[in-house]
Amino acid sequence: MDVAVLYEEGLSIRAVAARTGRSFEYTRLRLHAAGVELRSQVAPTEPDPVAQEFARLYEDGLGLNAVAEVTGHSYRYVRRQLHLAGVPLRPSGGQPVEADQVAEYLASLYRVGQFGRGLSIRAIQKRTGYGYAFIRTRLLAAGVELRDQHGQPRKAVA
To answer: Whole-model pTM above 0.85?
Structure first.
């Protein structure tokens, strides 16, 4: 297949490379050698159809990284598509977490243990598989007073 013909039919360099089984750079060099004038790369001004799915997932509470992971696209692509679709982005740090059943369960592990004292966050992490920050955030959402490394209530920061 002639790469110049495919490119002039409107395919991108990446699409031509994929169709011919060659690398992007090889295809670009072949186009250059054939004297083909390459089109300028212009950022899209309209969202792709997939942006609706991104918006649905994002509005359901997923963060940008989670939407990217679930859909198999890059963080940057997801963010750009949401912006083009006019979806207002949440501030960094996400939405405030409210207490839920998981938070209450984690709080019960933290508050009560075998010897009257609950498990540490690290012990809960090992038992449940949740991450340290996730557990800590959920405990705070459940209104738990956190302990220091010696098991004493943490002092308030002034």
So the answer is: no
